[in-house]
Model the fold of this input.
Amino acid sequence: MHYFETATNLKFVMLTDTRIASMRTVLYQIWANLYVEYVVKSPISPVEHAGGVGVANELFEGALESFIVSFGILSVVTICLADGECTEHCLPSFLSTR
Done:
């Protein structure tokens, strides 16, 4: 399990094979380069996700999948907002059971 938490209490958790080295830097990159770019800066994507909706942004999800696939690993990334609402992304999505 890999974990990164922002100063605003936004949590990024990645589950991978135990043989994978620390992914904290990768989680930081997901926050700084993907989440901020596609969710925070988007005027049509709410930053607050009331009612358990979680991060529902197709551009973010596509960029996240491409980013993770570039590492050649299968992982599950969970993003938990300060209010406790979490969204899980199984990557790559073609292996997802959703």
